[in-house]
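Q: Structure tokens for this one, please.
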Amino acid sequence: MPFVARFDAFSRASPPRAVRPPRRNLILRIVDAIAESNRRKAEQEVAGYIARNGSRFTDRLEVEIAQRFGSNR
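A: Here is the predicted structure, written as tokens:
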């Protein structure tokens, strides 16, 4: 009996290759890097403010931080 090779018979023989997600374009990567830098800077400022005010995170300190470092700059 002759063997007839089917197309899908050979595709299963090799292991599947990992599909790499497409890279974001350069502008979006730059914007992401700037946003991450700003986030780190804000976290450092808040941490310093907490350290200067007794290192205890109280309700009063939380309100002061929200007023001082809020997003309405």
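A few notes: Helices lie at 7-11, 26-52, 59-69. Residues 67 and 73 are 10 Å apart (CA to CA).
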